[in-house]
Amino acid sequence: MRVAVPHSLPKAEVRRRLDDKQDSMTNLVPGGMAEIETSWASEDRMVLTIRAMGQEMTGNVDIEDEAVVFTIDLPFALSFVEPMISGAIEQKGRKLLA
Fold first, then answer.
1. Are 56 and 49 spatial neighbours (Cβ–Cβ below 8 Å)?
2. By the 8 A CB rule, do 3 and 91 touch?
3. Would you say which domain of life the source belongs to (predicted)?
4. Which of 59, 86, 96 is closest to 4 using CA atoms?
């Protein structure tokens, strides 16, 4: 699953905001029942490990010039909730950058 959230910020500011709001990333998954671990693989890529609904998922947050791109490897067992999760990521991703 890939969700792009547009922005008009410098990359350094996007990194700062993502760093400052890492704790609120658990809200990216609907229901707030997720545990999310984050780390920086590079200056423009945050790595995510998400545990929710009895599943473990991995993903990345890539900082691009005009968008922050959330990519999550959604297991087949959860593919039915992809529209709900992608909508929540887009909405809450905008709040992370605000």
1. yes
2. no
3. Bacteria
4. 86
Q: Compute and round to an integer the Cα radius of gyration of the chain.
A: 12
Query: 3-class DSSP state for residue 74?
Result: coil
Q: How many CB atoms lie within 10 A of CB 8?
A: 9
For residue 69, the one-letter residue type is V
Annotate 13-53 with DSSP letters as a single string: HHHHHHHHTGGGGGGGSTTS--EEEEEEEETTEEEEEEEET
Helices 82-97/11-20 angle, 10° precision: 110
Higher-pLDDT residue of 31, 61: 61
Structural domains present in the chain: 2-97 (3.30.310)
CA–CA separation, 87 and 72 (whole Å): 13
